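Hey L., structure's done. Input below.
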Amino acid sequence: MKNSPIHRPRRTEAVRQLMLWGLVGSAVVWGVLEFFALQRARYHGWRNRQQAALPR
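Output:
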C-alpha cells in the first residue's frame, strides 16, 4: 500500500532479542568462570605435588 505507515519491529521482538543476548552473555560468563575454576584446581593440584616432592 502506498500510504501505509512504516512498520516497526514489534516490542516482543525487541524483548526476545534482549533475552537471547542475555542468555548468550550469561553462558559466556559462566564458561569463563568455569575455566578459571578448572585452572585454579589444576594449579593447586600441581603445587601440592611439587611441595610433596621437596626434601624435608
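The CA atoms of residues 50 and 56 lie 13 Å apart. The radius of gyration is 26 Å.

-- N.
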